[in-house]
Amino acid sequence: MITRRNFLVGALGTGTLLSARSLFAKAPQPATAVNFEVPAGACDCHVHVFGDPARYPFFAGRTYTPEPALPEELAELHRRLHLQRVVIVQPSVYGTDNRATLDAIKSRGAVARGIAVIDDQTPERELDAMNRAGVRGIRLNLATGGTNDPEVARARLVAAIERIRRRDWHIQIFTSLAVIAALQDTIASSPVRVVIDHFGGASAARGVEQPGFSNLIGLVRSGKIYVKISGAESASERPPDFPDVALLARALIAANPDRVIWGTSWPHPGGSGAKSATALAPSREIDDGLVLNQLALWAPDAAVRKKILVDNPARLFGF
């Protein structure tokens, strides 16, 4: 019997992915209704879009091959979650080919911004065009690329700072607490704003006393960085609501609620099950409605939630 996954694998090879998508279950959608009043202008600050690989080919050096997650599916997610704004982050699977991300931003119009991935071969005219298209920063995928050497990470950060310091952009870093601790002085002195992904790579099971978390807290408290309390599944192994993440989230919010932003990390790529980087890897089955409801527990004060969902993203991304 043909399965959805087998069909999608075949579609990947034949370039018929978009028509294939209409025949099978779509990318993850919330199963749980939002149980608090989401403020107008709320922003999901971390999502990815994966299009038809015939149109948007994957990077040969990728570490996984995602299932499709289309702009219209992203729009449906946000309709269900009562979110109006979005930041679409270039995923590692496309390398420095930002076309899928840029097209997704265009599909959402003025309520969308983007984070690109570039290298030293990316021309300034391309950065200018991306700025006009809504890009407001670049991402350093240190964790995805396996960059754990602090000195290599520092060199990449310094190069990135020099590359964009004349633009009103920021640098978004996906890395570990150990690397954040090692780069603390460089981050604190950066003339470019820095955003740290996904709880800084902290482990919820290890709590607030784990090495490096105090460094992250210190940077947040000082106002030197923004931190994303996003992708709870990256910090916790306790689905479906990831209750142990609450301790980390509350500590970061208490440190400085003006420097915290939130995101789903939809469609939760990089799930287990693929035998190789080129084999189709299923997205993780995350109930984003249930996870968004945790924000009301992490930040019981509606005024603080408005900062996290509306005010901070508006300031950082220029909505």
Uncertain segments of ≥5 residues (pLDDT<50)?
1-25
Strand content: 5-15%
- What summary fits the major beta sheet? 8 strands, parallel
Q: For the terminal residues, how far apart are their CA atoms?
A: 48 Å
Description:
The longest helix is centred in the last third of the chain and has 16 residues, at 302-317. Helix 6 links the parallel strand 5 (135-141) and strand 6 (170-174). The chain starts with a helix and ends with a helix. It is of the alpha/beta class and 319 residues long. It has one domain (28-317): Metal-dependent hydrolases (TIM Barrel, Alpha-Beta Barrel). It is built from 13 helices and ten strands. The strands form two sheets. Strands 1-3-4-5-6-7-8-9 form an eight-stranded parallel β-sheet. Strands 2-10 form a two-stranded parallel ribbon.
Give me the secondary-structure topology.
Layout: H1 4-14, H2 17-21, E1 43-47, E2 65-66, H3 71-81, E3 85-89, H4 99-108, E4 112-116, H5 124-133, E5 135-141, H6 150-164, E6 170-174, H7 177-182, H8 184-188, E7 193-196, H9 213-222, E8 225-230, H10 232-235, H11 245-255, E9 260-263, E10 280-281, H12 288-298, H13 302-317
Parallel strand pairs: 1-3, 2-10, 3-4, 4-5, 5-6, 6-7, 7-8, 8-9
What's a concise summary of this model?
With 319 residues, the chain is an alpha/beta fold. The protein has helices at residues 4-14, 17-21, 71-81, 99-108, 124-133, 150-164, 177-182, 184-188, 213-222, 232-235, 245-255, 288-298, 302-317; strands spanning 43-47, 65-66, 85-89, 112-116, 135-141, 170-174, 193-196, 225-230, 260-263, 280-281.
